[in-house]
Structures are given as C-alpha cells and as structure tokens.
Protein: Cardiolipin synthase
Organism: Cutaneotrichosporon spelunceum
Amino acid sequence: MSVTVFLRAPRGARVLGSLARSTAVSARPPLFSAAVQRITAPTKPGKTEPTELHESPYTLPNALTVARIAACPFLAYAIVKGDFQIATGILVASGLTDWLDGYLARKWNQKTVIGSIIDPMADKMLVTTLVVCLTYKGLLPLPLAVLIFGRDFALSMWAFYLRYKSLPPPRTLKRYFDPTMPSAEVQPTQISKINTALQLVLMAFTTASPLLVSAGYPIGAYLEGLQWIVAGTTIWSGLSYVGASGYKFLKQPGKKRLGKK
C-alpha cells in the first residue's frame, strides 16, 4: 500500500513526498522500523530535487543502546557503595544488550547513522563510569585512567569538528544537534574495536575482582598484565583515527560529496 502526501508551496508549486510500506509479512515490528526520508524542494516546474537526507532514530536497537546508557548511574552507585555483586550483574546485562542491539540492527535492517554514533558512545560512557568508580575505589591505577580519558577527550573533540565540517549550510545549533539529519558516519577502526573490547574485559574482571579474590582466585598478576595491554591498545587506537579511515562524510542528495571516504 502506498501513501502519498502533497504539501502546497508558494505560487502553487508542490513538494511531493512518498512513503511506501510493504504489506508482506515482515520480522520487523512496525513501531520500530527505521525510515529514511528525502526532503525535496522545487527546482523547475513539475520537477523536484532532493536537498537533504533525514532518517528516523526511533528503532529498537537504538532503544537498547539508550537503555545501556541509562544503566550507567546505577552501575556507578553499586561500585561506590561496594556492592560488587549488583555491579557485576549490571555489567553482564549491559554486555548482553550490547550484543543484542547489534544483532537486531542487522537482522531487521535497522542500521542508522545515529545508531553508529550512540552505540560506541554507550560503550564509552560505560567504560568512563567504570574507570572513574574503580579508580575511586583504588582498584584501577590512576595513570591508566588518565590515559583512557585523554584519548577519549581528544576523539570527542575530533567528532565535534567532523560534525561541523560535514553539516550542510546553514550551520545552526538546531541543525547541528538534530539527530534526524546525518552528515557524517563514524566508522570505528579495527584496533579501536579491539581496544574497546579489551577495556571492557579489564573493567569487568576488575569489577568482579573482589568477589573472585574472596572466593580464592588470586588474579592480581593477570589484571596487571591486562592493564599494560590496554594501555598499549589505547594509544594505538587513538593514533588510528589520525587518517580518514575512521569516518565518512555522507553524500547529501542533490549535493556534491562533502569529503572523501
């Protein structure tokens, strides 16, 4: 079934927008289906030309990612209070949702640009929460915490710059923070994915270390070795974003490409 919407423009010009929905049975829940919409503007009489790319961020994978972000304050409270059983449980649940949102995004074809941004953001918020709280409790070395934060701060500033550079004019604050108007896609490098995984493994074992030690499993030497490995991958992954392999400017409809891949 096809639904066509006409919007009347000045001097009788019409802007045509068409959204097509398939009536076939689909595995995707209709309330969480990702949609990409091209906003068109009149050029010549009877013709329209796409000018901007819009997409819906309201998908189930993105909702799971937001839930992972929302769990961070509860994780922090549990660690600071010394309740490592609850903290470990929250950490395990966060790991499961991290896997599930990626699986559903692929299975239901719900990959979005905003999802490519908030998913690694959720991982970083989780790592940041763990680093701060575990360092506060004396379970993580301060120099390693400073190294992790320094790398993440530098990459955050780089991401803000890329957003500004790739955003089509006019560059306003409203358009800059509009999640439905993608302009650049974050493409984590392979070493960055490995680094994030190693950081999460380190934080998970560090969080569970009081429980493991009390159960008779001395893991201090293993944690120290893993800390040195994470320090190395943190530096390496930060340097991997110096080139253009970690991002891509999106081609806006009707516009010249804003940058190279």
Observations:
- The first helix runs from residue 60 to 70.
- Residues 2-55 form one domain.
- The longest strand covers residues 48-55.
- The radius of gyration is 22 Å.
